[in-house]
């Protein structure tokens, strides 16, 4: 199957030929299949933001290619706008980018630029609002009257309304409280399940990535250092720590127990850990089998 | 010795309910009474909307209580003639590192505060160097702030406050926008300033793993103090924290759930290491039985 997104020897250098020349992305290669949920991790300055901005042509690679469904996105530079409808990007703190008079108009901005009919625009905007849990009565309000979490949802809905094949989210939960984070993450997961499109989630929260991603990309000093299943990536706790990342606490606990010789294997969530540990622990009432 | 005291602080933002204009929509603080000693490290915890950021702004007279009083080193924050004296005592670091650096060179940014206070140039030079060393950013003194990482920028912001020689620093979610390494750097700096320089720290956060590093944790919920105490006293109330939409570290949560399932785990586990050292003897015990 042709991958939905493929990077071939992707490189990007900032300020070529100046004293500030900096190689931000070097020789990155990967293939992502339609419907995958990809987590992207890496510390600040690792090149992950530059890398994802090349996915929809916001930055043109210095060398190398980005293939969207098998086709080089820069083959016809004049048509790069069409690529941005197919690869939707939600930036960090997207609520700073709201500008329309009403929530509905703001969400409709993308689909309107795609040249859709009014009826289709309306339908898409309403569907998108529903996906991110925005109440109908909010749609006629000014986006500036909403709370931070609601504004964030409006911004995400605006990108979802374009129905992109690939949705790239840069730290969508940053600055939200634990409850808000869980809700938004669950909404993204159910959107993914229902639409079956591809998601790239950039996050500093290893717990979030562990919970939702099928595979994880690890960027480190401008290279793609690892790209493997979530389980495989997070079982390498020492390597991740050496490049300034962490594994989820629960994964760390289980990997210490394993290293100390106890019969457990690495896991990603609390539920998995409970399942493994309970049969191995003494419990009230002496439950020796 | 008491440094900050709040007495039954109330606060309401200027918004009214559309149907009931009499009833204010956002009663953010509903009577917070708190006493913070000089040299204490207090973590203020709460979910979004709990009133913790509003509370933070009370500590250096950025906001004045609608009812109740806030005293900083004996000065009433409602007394406008003392506002500058109060801000000389209590500095503030915000969430977004890009919103609080003003100069194009690191050391100029750190010098901004003392310059405004009219400090002698020689003394400014001394304070800037000392502050940059204290946050471990001295070697970056001639860099441009925009080239620094988020964690480094936050440490510059902290240095700017140190250079004013404030007795207390209030940090409002200083690590929310940082990666794990940046978070660790900032937390390390905060700890060091508290321990070695005796600076009073008030840390607003919703990361429990940061709050456990404090001497005292105060949990705010809907504008009131829900509970407070040492990190161990507060985090042993896992059920209470969860029902108030607060996050509990996975290590603490695991121990709590195992306990709930009948395993003899200790009451409060705060870290990965504590969790492992509680689990291993139990695993060994059961292993020996089998």
UniProtKB/TrEMBL annotation, chain A:
Domain ABC transporter: 5-246
Subcellular location as annotated: Cell membrane
The protein's Enzyme Commission number: 7.-.-.-
Keyword Translocase listed: yes
Keywords: ATP-binding, Cell membrane, Membrane, Nucleotide-binding, Translocase, Transport
GO molecular function, one term: ATPase-coupled transmembrane transporter activity
Membrane topology: Peripheral membrane protein
Gene3D superfamilies: P-loop containing nucleotide triphosphate hydrolases
SUPFAM superfamilies reported for this sequence: P-loop containing nucleoside triphosphate hydrolases
Job of this protein: ATP-binding (A) component of a common energy-coupling factor (ECF) ABC-transporter complex.
Family: Belongs to the ABC transporter superfamily. Energy-coupling factor EcfA family.
Subunit structure: Forms a stable energy-coupling factor (ECF) transporter complex composed of 2 membrane-embedded substrate-binding proteins (S component), 2 ATP-binding proteins (A component) and 2 transmembrane proteins (T component).
Full protein name: Energy-coupling factor transporter ATP-binding protein EcfA2
């Amino acid at each position: 199957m042709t991958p939905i997104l493929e990077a071939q020897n992707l490189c990007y250098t900032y300020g070529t030929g100046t004293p500030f020349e900096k190689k931000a992305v070097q020789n990155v290669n990967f293939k992502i299949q339609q419907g995958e949920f990809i987590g992207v991790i890496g510390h600040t300055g690792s090149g992950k933001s530059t890398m994802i901005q090349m996915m929809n042509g916001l930055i043109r690679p210095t060398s190398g290619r980005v293939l969207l469904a098998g086709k080089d996105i820069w083959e016809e530079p004049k048509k790069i706008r069409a690529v941005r409808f197919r690869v939707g990007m939600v930036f960090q703190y997207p609520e700073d980018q709201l500008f329309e008079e009403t929530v509905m108009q703001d969400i409709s901005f993308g689909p309107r630029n795609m040249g859709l009919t009014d009826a289709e625009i309306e339908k898409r905007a309403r569907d998108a609002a529903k996906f991110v849990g925005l109440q109908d009565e909010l749609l006629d309000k000014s986006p500036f009257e909403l709370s931070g979490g609601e504004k964030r949802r409006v911004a995400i809905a605006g990108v979802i309304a374009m129905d992109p094949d690939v949705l790239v989210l840069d730290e969508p939960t940053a600055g939200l409280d634990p409850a808000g984070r869980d809700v938004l993450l669950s909404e993204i997961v159910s959107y993914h399940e229902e639409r079956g499109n591809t998601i790239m989630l950039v996050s500093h929260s290893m717990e979030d990535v562990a919970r939702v991603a099928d595979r994880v990309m690890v960027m480190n000093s401008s290279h793609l250092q690892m790209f493997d299943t979530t389980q495989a990536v997070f079982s390498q706790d020492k390597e991740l720590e050496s490049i300034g990342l962490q594994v989820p606490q629960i994964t760390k606990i289980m990997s210490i127990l394993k290293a100390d010789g106890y019969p457990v294997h690495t896991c990603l969530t609390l539920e998995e850990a409970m399942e493994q540990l309970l049969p191995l622990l003494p419990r009230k009432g002496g439950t020796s089998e | 010795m008491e440094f900050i005291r709040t007495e039954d602080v109330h606060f309401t933002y200027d918004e009214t309910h559309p149907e009931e204009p009499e009833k204010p929509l956002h009663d953010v603080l509903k009577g917070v009474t708190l006493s913070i000693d000089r040299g204490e490290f207090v973590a203020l915890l709460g979910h979004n909307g709990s009133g913790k950021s509003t509370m933070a702004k009370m500590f250096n007279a950025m906001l004045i209580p609608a009812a109740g009083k806030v005293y900083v080193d004996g000065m009433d924050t409602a007394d406008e003639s003392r506002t500058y004296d109060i801000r000389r005592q209590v500095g503030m670091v915000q969430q977004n590192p890009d919103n609080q650096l003003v100069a194009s060179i690191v050391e100029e940014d750190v010098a901004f505060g003392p310059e405004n206070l009219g400090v002698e140039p020689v003394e400014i030079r001394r304070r800037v160097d000392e502050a940059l060393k204290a946050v471990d950013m001295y070697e970056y003194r001639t860099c441009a702030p925009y080239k620094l990482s988020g964690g480094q920028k936050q440490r510059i912001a902290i240095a700017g406050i140190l250079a004013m020689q404030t007795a207390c620093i209030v940090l409002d979610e200083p690590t929310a926008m940082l990666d794990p390494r940046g978070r660790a750097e900032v937390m390390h700096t905060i700890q060091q300033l508290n321990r070695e320089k005796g600076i009073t720290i008030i840390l607003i956060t919703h990361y429990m793993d940061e709050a456990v590093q404090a001497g005292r944790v105060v949990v705010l919920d809907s504008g009131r103090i829900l509970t407070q105490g040492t990190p161990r006293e507060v985090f042993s109330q896992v059920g209470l924290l969860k029902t108030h939409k607060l996050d509990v570290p996975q290590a603490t949560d695991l121990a709590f759930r195992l306990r709930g399932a009948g395993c003899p785990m200790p009451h409060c586990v705060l870290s990965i290491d504590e969790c492992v050292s509680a689990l291993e003897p139990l695993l060994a015990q059961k292993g020996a039985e089998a």
